[in-house]
């Protein structure tokens, strides 16, 4: 068995800047920084450490200057797990951890962002991106019904018709559109994205951390207050179960692996 080159290894590293900012970089270069279970577990560990150490600001990125910020879920893992966005799965745990982090999490984004990685960006408190960014939600291409919690996060961030077009057509949201709809806090040139994200982080790091933490938690709770009848949730769960267990999802995964267009039959 040949050794894996260092640049191909899955890894999550942290650089501590001025004692109050953690720059967390996740890498999975051979898979376009796909969010597999190993990477998500390492990311979860890093966020836990920084939270316990009281780090008030985290910059989250896979780096700058690359074509793909993250390809989203590693679809190779879906063959064994047909519902990778269920409540207890690695991605959902990380998304909840980012949203509940007792400080500010800034997504620093360069290049295209796909699937579950879009949800990761949306879960961050602030987003600094360069002009190469584009967001694509592609679960319909493989027959995956997105989670209710994920859709609620998107509804809070995007107009409903833009959201439907992203999910129904798998059409990427380009940088200028994302800025216009308020998805981005800053849209800058590629050469400036790191400096702008760091400048924002340094400004936040001088503020009162307990006050910021309290406001963040209040906003998270208020954002999550969406009363839904129990029977409606049960109906949603059944629709997702049927879609995840259906032939269309198996066909979607097979087509992706074989680099061909899927032939969905609605069953």
Automatic annotation (TrEMBL):
SUPFAM superfamilies: ClpP/crotonase. InterPro entries: ClpP/crotonase-like_dom_sf (IPR029045), Enoyl-CoA_hyd/isom_CS (IPR018376), Enoyl-CoA_hydra/iso (IPR001753), Enoyl-CoA_hydra_C (IPR014748). Its EC number is 4.1.1.-. Keywords: Lyase. The keyword Flavoprotein does not apply. Gene3D superfamilies: 2-enoyl-CoA Hydratase, Chain A, domain 1, Lyase 2-enoyl-coa Hydratase, Chain A, domain 2. One of its GO terms (molecular function) is lyase activity. PANTHER family: ENOYL-COA HYDRATASE, MITOCHONDRIAL, ENOYL-COA HYDRATASE-RELATED. Belongs to the enoyl-CoA hydratase/isomerase family. NCBIfam families: PRK11423.1. This is Methylmalonyl-CoA decarboxylase. It comes from Paraburkholderia hiiakae.
């Amino acid at each position: 068995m040949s050794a894996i080159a260092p640049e191909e290894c899955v890894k999550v590293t942290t650089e501590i800047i001025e004692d109050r900012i953690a720059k967390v970089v996740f890498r999975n270069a051979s898979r376009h920084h796909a969010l597999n279970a190993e990477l998500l577990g390492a990311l979860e560990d890093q966020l836990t450490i920084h939270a316990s150490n009281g780090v008030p600001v985290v910059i989250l990125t896979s780096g700058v200057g690359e074509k793909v910020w993250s390809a989203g879920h590693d679809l190779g893992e879906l063959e064994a797990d047909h519902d990778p966005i269920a409540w207890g799965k690695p991605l959902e745990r990380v998304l909840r951890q980012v949203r509940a982090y007792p400080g500010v999490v800034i997504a620093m984004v360069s290049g295209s962002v796909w699937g579950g990685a879009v949800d990761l960006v949306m879960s961050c408190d602030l987003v600094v991106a360069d002009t190469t960014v584009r967001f694509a939600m592609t679960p319909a291409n493989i027959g995956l019904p997105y989670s209710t919690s994920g859709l609620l996060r998107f509804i809070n961030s995007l107009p409903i018709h833009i959201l439907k077009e992203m999910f129904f057509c798998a059409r990427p949201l380009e940088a200028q559109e994302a800025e216009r709809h308020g998805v981005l806090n800053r849209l800058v040139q590629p050469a400036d994205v790191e400096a702008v994200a760091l400048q924002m982080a340094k400004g936040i790091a001088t503020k009162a951390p307990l006050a910021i933490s309290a406001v963040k938690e209040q906003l998270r709770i208020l954002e999550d207050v969406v009363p839904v009848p129990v029977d409606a949730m049960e109906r949603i769960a059944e629709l997702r179960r049927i879609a995840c267990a259906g032939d269309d999802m198996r066909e979607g995964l097979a087509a992706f692996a074989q680099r061909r267009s899927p032939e969905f039959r609605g069953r």
